[in-house]
Amino acid sequence: MEHDYLSDLDIAFKAITKNRMEARKYYRYYEGDQPMVFTYDKLVQIFGRSGLKFIQNWCAVVIDSVCDRLIFRGWDLAKGDREFREASLPLLQSSISNLAYEVHLDALVTGNGYIVLDIADDDSIVGYRNRPEQMAVIYEEEDPTRMAFAAKMWRDASDTFLNLYYEDEIVKFNGPLGLETASGFNKDYEVGANPFDKIPVVHFMTRAKELANIIPLQDAVNKTFSDMMVVGEFNAFPQRWAVTQADVSNLKSDPQSILKFPKGASDEENTQIGEFGAASTKGYLETIESLASVISVISRTPKYYFLPTGASISGDALIVMEAPLVKKVERCIEAFTEPWLRYLSFYSPDWKNATPIWGRVGTEQINSEATAFQTLVAAGLPLVTVARRFGWNEKEIDQMRKDIAEQKKENADLAAQALEIAKLRMEQNNEPEI
């Protein structure tokens, strides 16, 4: 297959440059390194030092509320190569937890998460999480679900590197630092074979960036919080004033002293004493709470993540409150299912028979779920059908079947033992006395 390397290089360079700017912006907000877009200069003037920020980071709450529920446990591979299923798959799944968390977090914060696969020194296949600011994936115009090629760009102390990943080749470019266009790369690029039969990049993508609609509200929260801190520093306590021509330089004010103002310098002058009242921070707190409520609605994050509820929440009320968040997490699971199957395809040819295994999305309500489970079974629905409706995977259902069979066998053995004991007692009771 022929490729236009230089044209693709230019496309990749522009795409990665755009991704880098967006990824850095969104990660700054997620990590709390947020710019003071309204009052920074005023804060420096008031407090007399630069670098001062007052931040309430709600962006991390919005992201973590979803990421903490995206628990990927691996794959249920009921069919296919038995040796891989029993030997290699458990090892692969044991190391997937941290990788899954990192790539899910990237996708939620920036809209894109990437895993690049490679061959290790021992000829094993390894997958590495790559930062979104380094990567770009270009899709076919005619088929937007099919990758045309992928690219990665990074720098060291002296050079810039860019790799193009195709299904059959990997092309490596290098150039000096500070490149502003793709034309600055050296023309003596290196073309090598791709050890896989597919582009060795797995792309996790969310349709809407979680923080896009939250950032303006986050800026407003930080501005309000900064104003409140200024008030707390300078206006949160009463301030006394006096109008007099007498010398008051020796007066000292503390909680246990009584201020004695001397008489005015002349009989015509009257000494005046007054007080400036303390400013309340209540209005600022109410504004912050109002903004937090708006963030909760827009991001579909339950309000108890932002504000104290004041009382315990019943199970049914909690289910209702979490319903929008649960739905959002389920959509993320749908979006991430195909990439995880693609990741498995690098390890097993039977990946199409696999089912990704995810942890529970909603908060576990044992009493409510047990009652609902029992009601559906009593209504005539098969036990297996009810278990699937409650999110059980096939592995858990198979284990339930085995447990039920073992329980029935134990019950039958106990019944047989009880019958033997009853027969023995009856025989003893029927024996004539001598």
Helix and strand element order? HHHEHHEEEEEEEEHEEHHEHHH
Major sheet: arrangement of strands: 4-5-6-7-8
What number of structural domains do the residues give?
A: 3
Number of strand elements: 12
As a whole number of angstroms, the C-alpha radius of gyration is: 34 Å
- Helix and strand composition category: alpha+beta
Global morphology: flat
Q: Give the proportion of residues in helices.
A: 40-55%
Mean pLDDT: 84
Could you tell me the strand content as a percent range?
A: 15-25%
How far apart, in Å, are the first and last alpha carbons?
103 Å
Would you mind describing this structure in some detail?
This protein is 46% helix and 17% strand. The mean pLDDT is 84. A 5-stranded antiparallel beta sheet has the order 4-5-6-7-8, covered by helices on one side. Strands 3-2-9 form a 3-stranded antiparallel beta sheet. It folds into 3 domains: 109 residues, no CATH class; 197 residues, no CATH class; 70 residues, no CATH class. It is flat and about 125 Å long. It has 434 residues and is α+β, with helices and mostly antiparallel strands.
